[in-house]
Amino acid sequence: MSYFPLFIELKNKRCLVVGGGRIALHKAGVLKGFGAGVVVVASSILPELRGMEGIVCLERGFLPGDLDGRALVVAATDDSSLNHRISLLCQKRGIPVNAVDQPEDCSFIFPAYIKEGEVVAAFVSGGQSPVVTQYLKECMRPVLTELIGDLAEQLGSLREAVKQSVPGEGRKAVYQELLNWGLGKGRTLTEKEIRRIVGGAVEWKD
């Protein structure tokens, strides 16, 4: 069954990772990279995980109460029965859960992804082939560069000015020209270039 590609806001959301090994380290880092507030619970936690800034580590066994108030849970222990139990508890509470390497216990999966600024491209194969998703990720790397992230941020900062200066039916063409100009130059646009494309009504903001 295919997974619906839903992107969700995790900034400051309370997320739980159960497990303290290498996989838990990776998952906690991914969640933290998207702004989540991460708590890790495990009877044994890697020093690298304990040392990650902004992550709370509770070195003890999992308790059902650890799920209270969680927006998202990852079961990343080496005990498949515990991962299954955590999944069932989450499902009863309506909490999205990922049980590592147990697709039948997952309500969501972690994609292979590339992130540049606020631009994210993600790939999944329904849990069938990580090799395929990694291949697609590598194919996208030359396209989704740091420049794309910078241009997306710049175009976003111009939305209000374009809205005020350009009639609705013409805005898409203006954004496309701004993007093409930046990609062609290999950099973000100067004030002069933006004014030439959008028009003199643009208010420049440093």
Helix content: 40-55%
CATH homology group of the largest domain: NAD(P)-binding Rossmann-like Domain
Instruction: Enter the CATH topology name of the largest domain.
Output: Rossmann fold
> Can you summarize the main beta sheet?
5 strands, parallel
Stretches where pLDDT is under 50 for at least 5 consecutive residues are none
Average pLDDT: 93
- How far the N terminus sits from the C terminus, by CA atoms, comes to 48 Å
For the biggest β-sheet, the strand order reads: 3-2-1-4-5
Query: What characteristic shape results from the CA principal axes?
Result: elongated
Number of helices: 8
| CATH class descriptor of the largest domain | Alpha Beta
Any idea what the CATH architecture of the largest domain is?
3-Layer(aba) Sandwich
The helix/strand class is: alpha/beta
Number of strand elements: 7
What this model shows, in words?
The protein is an alpha/beta fold and 206 residues long. The protein has 3 domains: 1-110, 3-Layer(aba) Sandwich (Rossmann fold), CATH 3.40.50.720; 111-144; 146-198. The chain is 40% helix and 16% strand. It has 8 helices and 7 strands, in the order βαβαββαβββααααα. The chain has helices at 22-33, 47-50, 80-93, 130-140, 146-157, 159-165, 171-185, 191-198, and strands at residues 14-18, 37-42, 55-59, 72-75, 97-99, 112-116, 119-123. The strands form 2 sheets. It has a 5-stranded parallel β-sheet with strand order 3-2-1-4-5, with helices on both faces. Strands 6-7 form a two-stranded antiparallel ribbon. Helix 5 packs antiparallel against helix 7. The longest helix has 15 residues, at 171-185. The radius of gyration is 21 Å and the shape is elongated. The N and C termini lie far apart (48 Å). The model has no long low-confidence stretch (mean pLDDT 93).
